[in-house]
From TrEMBL:
<dbReference type="InterPro" id="IPR001128">
    <property type="entry name" value="Cyt_P450"/>
</dbReference>
<comment type="similarity">
    <text>Belongs to the cytochrome P450 family.</text>
</comment>
<dbReference type="InterPro" id="IPR002401">
    <property type="entry name" value="Cyt_P450_E_grp-I"/>
</dbReference>
<protein>
    <recommendedName>
        <fullName>Cytochrome P450</fullName>
    </recommendedName>
</protein>
<keyword id="KW-0560">Oxidoreductase</keyword>
<keyword id="KW-0349">Heme</keyword>
<dbReference type="GO" id="GO:0020037">
    <property type="term" value="F:heme binding"/>
</dbReference>
<dbReference type="GO" id="GO:0004497">
    <property type="term" value="F:monooxygenase activity"/>
</dbReference>
<dbReference type="Pfam" id="PF00067">
    <property type="entry name" value="p450"/>
</dbReference>
<dbReference type="InterPro" id="IPR036396">
    <property type="entry name" value="Cyt_P450_sf"/>
</dbReference>
<keyword id="KW-0503">Monooxygenase</keyword>
<keyword id="KW-0479">Metal-binding</keyword>
<dbReference type="InterPro" id="IPR050364">
    <property type="entry name" value="Cytochrome_P450_fung"/>
</dbReference>
<dbReference type="GO" id="GO:0016705">
    <property type="term" value="F:oxidoreductase activity, acting on paired donors, with incorporation or reduction of molecular oxygen"/>
</dbReference>
<keyword id="KW-0408">Iron</keyword>
<dbReference type="GO" id="GO:0005506">
    <property type="term" value="F:iron ion binding"/>
</dbReference>
<comment type="pathway">
    <text>Secondary metabolite biosynthesis.</text>
</comment>
Length: 519
């Protein structure tokens, strides 16, 4: 019999214990889910697009609001119910606030500096704290002036003069506002080159973060494939995406520093934060945390807000009766002689209902952002293993027939009764699900909602949003194509006519805001 030394005995014992504990964990009751096949688990069943709809249907099929699935090396918990998400992601947030690594973004592109994707811990905390210090809800009124300037000069004037490019104007408006809030850089009213570049660079990172766009996000071991191998194009693309992301992080930041040094910097996140940091020991204007947080603002604010505004536009384009009702309400509150401002918003109850309904109808991030479980947990008698990815299915929660009957129908009346916003609803999409959960909840929701409300009120005060016409002058029916690449859901390009409203002096109301000087 061979002689076993103490190390070998120890290793064998540890393996045995690990094996037993693994088998024990497997025997514990996992949440319901579709049959998992050996090796592939459920990988072949999960679609690459529109996962929110797939999980919603699967939940109905299995008669459950919480589901467990596996893909090779990864367990996934899908939550289709808001109160379950609150129990786990809000009430047990110490255990549910981590993020999974996204192989294409973190390992192939090598981009790990957006705090939205950082693991839960001190580095994430430091970034989020820096963000909150400047963009807090308390400082929102100080931002109103800038919001109005960008809306009126950057969006409304362009809608009046060049309505056919409305999608471009929305991109330039919200991208420009983000650039200005963050860096204080001047922004062109149309076709700003930095915004154009940022969209491309961030489009690359959004694609890398999407579970469905790159196979490596489903089969993480593909990241080890050498660059020269056939089929390794994704690795070369990763390098290109990273180059642009680094340029996006550095160039506007260095331009902002230059303005600070020249004494020409307007108030912005970067200039105000540097001012506060200046007196601290070890002050470094190249502080990585500041630079990275600045980069994150643009990345998080632009696509999301634009997507919410374009969903609103599409919804009122498809529902002319809703549009007329909003217009009557805004007219009655604002009167004929001025543009809407933030003091009007609390009086616009019907508009508030329409905004809630458009956030519900097409949630901007239909499966939010994934969370990760840090420690083994138990819920409703089910075992939830450490390392499980949690997908809160915002779409399923906001399309739950028990809470929102006939959920695919766009109907703002769900949220309002006799002209008063209902306070007896189980779910208000402005407060639940849309902006995520627990410690990771969106820290920019107040900025998004403020811009969405004032943009919606101003657009409908000035313009009719009408369907396109065919060659005979008849209206073409507009169909909602709400596409999701699994991160965001945005209406696909649609056509409409944006016409100044009859009986309104739209040119006169906007004349002080016209011009070509940068914002
Ligand atoms: C309609 C517009 C918006 C929607 C629907 C939205 C939604 C979300 C959601 C669902 C998350 C993930 C929350 C979670 O993990 O549970 C998130 C994270 C985040 N959002 Fe927003 N957001 C919007 C606009 C904004 C704006 C305007 C900003 C910045 C000014 C912003 C900054 C962020 C940041 C920094 C994070 C990462 C938070 C973290 O991981 O700690 N968002 N957002």
């Amino acid at each position: 019999m061979p002689h076993l030394d103490i190390t070998t005995v120890l290793v064998i014992s540890l393996c045995f214990i690990a094996h037993i504990s693994y088998r024990y964990r497997r025997r514990r009751l996992l949440p319901p889910g579709p049959t998992r096949w050996p090796i592939v688990g459920n990988a072949l069943k999960i679609p690459l697009q529109n996962q929110h709809k797939f999980y919603n249907e699967l939940g109905k099929e299995l008669n459950t609001k919480i589901m467990y699935l596996e893909v090779p090396g990864q367990s996934i918990l899908v939550i289709n119910d808001a109160s379950i998400a609150q129990d786990l992601l809000d009430k047990r947030s110490t255990n549910y606030s981590d993020r999974p690594g996204i192989p294409m973004l973190a390992d192939v592109v090598g981009h790990r500096t957006f705090f939205a994707f950082m693991p839960y811990g001190n580095e994430w905390r430091a970034h989020r704290r820096l963000f909150m210090q400047y963009f807090s809800e308390k400082s929102l009124p100080q931002m109103h002036e800038k919001f109005l300037e960008f809306l009126r000069k950057g969006l409304l004037c362009n809608f009046l003069e060049y309505p056919e490019d409305f999608m471009h104007h929305m991109r330039n408006w919200i991208g420009g506002l983000s650039t200005s809030m963050t860096y204080g850089l001047p922004v062109q009213r149309q076709h700003d080159p930095l915004i154009h570049f940022a969209e491309r660079a961030l489009g690359g990172s959004a694609a890398a973060a999407s579970p469905g766009r790159f196979l490596v996000n489903v089969l993480p071991w593909l990241k080890y494939v050498p660059d020269w191998m056939p089929g390794a194009g994704f690795k070369r693309l990763g390098k290109q995406i990273m180059k642009e992301l680094v340029q996006l992080r550095e160039e506007p930041y260095q331009a902002a520093l230059e303005m600070i040094d020249n004494g020409t910097a307007p108030p912005s996140f970067v200039s105000d934060t540097i001012e506060k940091m200046r007196d601290k020991p070890n002050f470094d204007p190249q502080d990585a945390c500041l630079k990275q947080t600045a980069e994150q603002v643009f990345g998080a604010a632009s696509d999301t807000t634009r997507s919410a505004v374009s969903t609103f536009l599409l919804a009122i384009l498809m529902h002319s009766e809703v549009q007329k009702k909003v217009q009557q309400e805004v007219d009655s509150v604002v009167g004929p002689d001025r543009l809407p401002d933030f003091s009007d918003i609390p009086s616009l109850n019907y508009l508030a209902a329409v905004i809630k309904e458009s956030l519900r109808w097409n949630p901007v991030l239909p499966t939010a952002l994934p969370h990760l479980v840090t420690e083994d947990d138990e819920y409703m008698g089910y075992f939830i293993p450490k390392g499980t990815i949690v997908m809160p299915n915002t779409y399923a929660m906001l399309h739950d027939e028990q809470v929102f009957p006939d959920p695919e129908t766009f109907d703002p009346e769900r949220f309002i009764k006799d002209g008063v916003l209902r306070d007896d609803l189980q779910i208000d999409p402005e407060n639940v699900a849309t902006f995520g959960w627990g410690r990771r909840i969106c820290p920019g929701s107040h900025i998004a909602l403020a811009n969405l409300s004032i943009a919606a009120a101003s657009l409908l005060y000035l313009f009719d949003i009408l369907p396109p016409l065919d060659g005979d002058g008849n209206s073409i029916a507009v169909v909602a194509n709400l596409s999701s690449d699994n991160v965001g859901s945005e209406p696909e390009n649609f056509e409409c006519r944006i016409i100044p409203r009859k009986g309104k002096d739209v040119h006169g109301l906007l004349k002080d805001y016209m011009g070509t000087d940068p914002l």
